[in-house]
User: Which sequence fits this backbone?
């Protein structure tokens, strides 16, 4: 029994992945977090961005009243600002999740999205939700891989 316990302990020690570090990424140019979350977190070679909304970093424009095309551009511009703080670009994005309040906005969002990303495109999920914060029409979250 003692040998089995020692063998199990060695297996767990060698086979268990080490805990990855967790580092805060913040851009002074992107919209500030409005709750208990971070703009982004680097863990290992990946950077996980919180969902980006069409908020004006300067607070001058209420994007919730504007069309989905304009909102999508602001969202992607905010993502670029946060990625820049991690010394990354959209070319480093490996996965994206797009949330919209109306799936019929797919074509409009896709047109803007395609103008920001180049092939090979990130893996992507496109989801309709009932409502987004502050009644906006689109939110996008991404994961980027550091080279």
Assistant:
């Amino acid at each position: 029994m003692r040998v089995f316990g020692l063998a199990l302990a060695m297996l767990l020690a060698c086979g268990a992945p080490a805990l990855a570090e967790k580092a805060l990424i913040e851009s002074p140019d992107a919209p500030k977090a409005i709750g208990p979350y971070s703009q982004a977190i680097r863990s290992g070679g990946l950077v996980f961005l919180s969902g980006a909304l069409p908020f004006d970093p300067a607070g001058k424009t209420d994007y919730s009243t504007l069309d989905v095309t304009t909102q999508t551009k602001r969202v992607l511009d905010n993502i670029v600002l946060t990625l820049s703080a991690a010394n990354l670009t959209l070319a480093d994005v490996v996965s994206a999740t797009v949330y919209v309040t109306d799936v019929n906005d797919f074509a409009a969002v896709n047109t803007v999205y395609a103008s920001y990303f180049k092939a090979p495109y990130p893996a992507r999920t496109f989801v309709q939700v009932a409502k987004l914060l502050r009644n906006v029409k689109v939110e996008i979250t991404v994961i980027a891989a550091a080279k």
Observations:
- The chain has three helices and six strands.
- The first helix runs from residue 2 to 15.
- The domain at 21-145 is CATH 3.30.1330.40 (60s Ribosomal Protein L30; Chain: A;).
